[in-house]
């Protein structure tokens, strides 16, 4: 067995007497080994460490022997043998040590059963737990083996003998072994509750000695990190404020030195309370500018989850979910959201109203031109909106900034831009304006002035 001397001194912390004593002794052993000291003297020093200093510390629960000695890879199964009834489950612990921590594989009669659908393996402090079942004498009678390997040490294993009886577990069987765990009460194995309910799964078993209880969910060790799970004093399981994620199969193992018994499991269903459709707040009437995009999100409530759709004022379905996107709004409109499930239906309406802002002018085009001026014309974007003024932006192509002709009377639909450069490309865009505000711009057009100041009309 290799001997290691480890520096156990921590900065700013005074260590108990035995740490320094053991370290000193082990360092002396190492020096003697390195210096070729006789084997007898080395063994005498090692004997003092192993049979005097360490036992004293262990006796007083002050030190773990593994702090000083490397024990290598080891595997140990508990219990060493098991007899079980057909149709029941068996549970074995495989305790492992090693550095790196080993990975274990389970075998039944030499066959890897790690991925067997009847096998569930979980990690526990110090090793692994394996649950196998329902067991059958034809498949499971024989040797179970837990093999451990860590890629450094040689693989090791431990074995257990499993005997599966032909008969099933019958509570009133007079031939049951004395003291074996027995369930004492009948209970409803199917529990259906609503979200938020509190559930108690009662343990009521006898046995001599008193059985140890281990809880499982869906055949795996129960995850006690879930704060809704509480183990009561009588080993019963309390589930507080049950959620949908808590539904599943729950059972427990009652175990003593006479055997392991799994009473009938509970099948717990957790569902929401059924309610008629409704709507979450937040959907409101909207006043929007013309030619903008809006989103209406209809959040329906109820269980089962309602089907949701949108209809317009003509009662035509325009969207078959709660998310309605309306692009380029050009008129005021009333939209209705419908929600329906097996318990009923609900409707909510939303008015989308234009703000009164003018629509962007359209059909902007060149009407005539000279070398120093351009005349452009356009049409209103949408009838029915009052226009007080027009503004025209124009610039040479390539310039950074626009020049603007402001306050063109709203009743005009053409305008001449003067003081331009001959034989030059210009960009032109027109806007409509009223007391509410300024419209979006028309489509930008490109126009080139003439080479001279001569007038040219575009037909």
TrEMBL record:
Query: What are the protein's UniProt keywords?
Result: Disulfide bond, Immunoglobulin domain, Repeat, Signal
Lineage: superkingdom: Eukaryota
Q: Name one Pfam family in it.
A: Ig_3
* Family matches, as InterPro entries: FN3_dom, FN3_sf, Ig-like_dom, Ig-like_dom_sf, Ig-like_fold, Ig_I-set, Ig_sub, Ig_sub2
The protein's matches in Gene3D superfamilies, at most eight in alphabetical order, are given as: Immunoglobulins
Q: Does the keyword Disulfide bond apply?
A: yes
SUPFAM superfamilies of this UniProt entry? Answer: Fibronectin type III, Immunoglobulin
Q: What is this protein called?
A: Tyrosine- phosphatase Lar-like isoform X1
Species assigned in the record: Paramuricea clavata
């Amino acid at each position: 067995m290799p001997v290691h001397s480890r520096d156990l001194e921590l900065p700013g912390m005074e260590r108990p007497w035995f740490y320094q004593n053991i370290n000193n002794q082990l360092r002396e052993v190492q020096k003697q080994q390195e210096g070729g000291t006789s084997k007898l003297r080395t063994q005498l020093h090692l004997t003092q460490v192993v049979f005097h200093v360490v036992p004293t510390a262990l006796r007083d629960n002050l030190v773990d022997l593994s702090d000083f000695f490397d024990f290598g890879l080891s595997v140990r199964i508990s219990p060493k043998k098991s007899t079980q009834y057909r149709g029941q489950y068996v549970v074995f612990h495989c305790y492992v040590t090693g550095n790196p921590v080993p990975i274990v594989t389970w075998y039944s009669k030499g066959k890897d059963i790690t991925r067997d659908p009847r096998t569930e393996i979980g990690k526990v402090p110090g090793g692994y737990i394996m649950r196998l079942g329902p067991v059958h004498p034809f498949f499971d009678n024989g040797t179970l083996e837990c093999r451990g390997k860590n890629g450094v040490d040689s693989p090791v294993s431990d074995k257990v003998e499993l005997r599966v009886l032909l008969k099933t577990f019958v509570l009133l069987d007079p031939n049951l072994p004395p003291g074996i765990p027995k369930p004492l009460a009948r209970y409803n194995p199917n529990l259906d509750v609503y979200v938020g309910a509190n559930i108690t799964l009662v343990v009521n078993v006898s046995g001599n000695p008193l059985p140890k209880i281990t809880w499982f969910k869906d055949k795996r060790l129960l995850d006690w990190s879930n704060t809704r799970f509480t183990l009561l004093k009588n080993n019963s399981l309390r589930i507080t404020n049950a959620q949908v994620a808590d539904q599943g199969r729950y059972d427990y193992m009652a175990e003593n030195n006479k055997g392991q018994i799994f009473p009938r499991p509970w099948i717990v269903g957790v569902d929401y309370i059924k309610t008629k459709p409704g709507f979450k707040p937040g959907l409101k009437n909207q006043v929007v500018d013309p030619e903008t995009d809006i989103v209406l999100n209809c959040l329906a409530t109820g269980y089962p989850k309602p089907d949701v759709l949108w209809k317009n004022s003509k009662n035509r379905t325009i969207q078959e979910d709660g998310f309605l996107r309306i692009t380029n709004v050009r008129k005021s409109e009333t939209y209705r959201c419908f929600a329906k499930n097996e318990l009923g239906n609900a409707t909510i309406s939303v008015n989308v109203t234009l703000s009164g802002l003018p629509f962007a002018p359209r059909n902007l085009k060149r009407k005539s031109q000279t070398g120093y001026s351009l005349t452009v014309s356009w049409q209103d974007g949408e009838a029915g909106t009052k226009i007080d003024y027009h503004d025209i932006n124009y610039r040479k192509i390539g310039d950074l900034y626009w020049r603007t002709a402001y306050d063109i009377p709203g009743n005009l639909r053409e305008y001449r831009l003067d003081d331009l450069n001959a034989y030059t490309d210009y960009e032109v865009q027109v806007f409509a304006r009223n007391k509410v505000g300024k419209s979006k711009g028309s489509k930008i057009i490109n126009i080139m002035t003439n080479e001279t100041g001569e007038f040219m009309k575009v037909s």
